[in-house]
Structures are given as structure tokens and as C-alpha cells.
Amino acid sequence: MKLNELAPACGANRNRKRLGRGVGSGTGKTAGRGTKGQGSRSGGGVRPGFEGGQMPIHRRLPKRGFTNIFKKKVATVNLRDLKAFESGSTVDAAALMQAGLVKGAFDAIKLLGNGEIAAPLTIRLDLVSRGAGEKITAAGGKIEDI
């Protein structure tokens, strides 16, 4: 198969409907818009959500909850993910990003205690769970506050 032999599947492309091209075409004269009224006029039509004067659904339904504008986005890393680091190395935000364990924008990084750790590591992160802290100190590592 070559690039010049590529073609869409049979029936995938249809010709557009040509409106207002004579009464014999089926869409002549009023061009499928009917006669008179708001929908027949140029620039006419109703806004999105308009229900003919009935109270729109977005106003009929109750509003609930709110969006907390002070919410912090916290990235999480588990102990089992730290196997990528050598014994005695320092684990901080930059090291986790370089290792590909944390991606995107975040306000803090939290280390969780899922998994086991054997190598002693120095942890410099915003948040460390109690279980993760106990496993790190048991393995000979230490946690430094930022």
C-alpha cells in the first residue's frame, strides 16, 4: 500500500446538502427552514438552553456544593516506587520528577507507606505518612523537614 493509494472507506464521505437550488432539488425555495418565524430568519434561532419560555433545566435543578479555591493539589508517591533510587541517595521533588514518578503541576508531594523499602534513603518531601516514616527509619534512612 502506498500513500497515493489511501482512500476513505466506501460511504464514509458524503456530499454536503446544497440548499436553495430550485424546487426540484427538494431543498429549494425556503431551503429546509420552513416558512416565517425565528428559525427561518438570517441570524435567527434561540440561545443554547432556551426551552421556549419554559423555565430552563439549568434553573429548575437545585444547585449543590461549591469549588474550594484554596484546595491544594498533592502528588502521591508510594514506598514501593522508591526502588529506583540507590542506597544512601536523597529523594526530593527534583529527584522524583527526574525519575518520572511525579508529573505535572502540584502544590506538595506526599510519601505513602504502601510497599517495603530496604535501602536507607534521605527523604526531603513536603509530607510523609506515619507508616512510611516508620519504615524509612527502620531501614536506616532519615526524614528531613523542608
Gross CATH architecture of the domain at 74-143:
Ribosomal Protein L15, Chain: K, domain 2
State the strand order across the main sheet. 1-3-5
> What name does the CATH topology of the domain at 74-143 carry?
Ribosomal Protein L15, Chain: K, domain 2
- Beta content: 5-15%
**Total of helices:** 3
Which stretches are poorly predicted, pLDDT < 50 over at least 5 residues?
A: none
Report the top-level CATH class of the domain at 74-143: Alpha Beta
N-end to C-end Cα span: 59 Å
Dominant shape = elongated
Largest sheet: 3 strands, parallel
**Share of helical residues:** 10-25%
Find the structural class using helix and strand composition.
alpha/beta
Order of helices and strands: HEEHEEEHE
Rounded to an integer in angstroms, the radius of gyration calculated over CA atoms is 31 Å
Q: Could you tell me the mean pLDDT? A: 94
Q: What is the number of E strands?
A: 6
Describe it for me?
The chain has helices spanning 57-60, 93-99, 130-138, and strands at residues 74-78, 90-91, 108-112, 122-123, 127-128, 142-143. The protein is of the alpha/beta class and 146 residues long. The protein has a domain at 74-143: Ribosomal Protein L15, Chain: K, domain 2, CATH 3.100.10. The protein has a three-stranded parallel beta sheet. A three-stranded parallel beta sheet has the order 2-4-6. The longest helix has 9 residues, at 130-138. The radius of gyration is 31 Å and the shape is elongated. The model has no long low-confidence stretch (mean pLDDT 94).
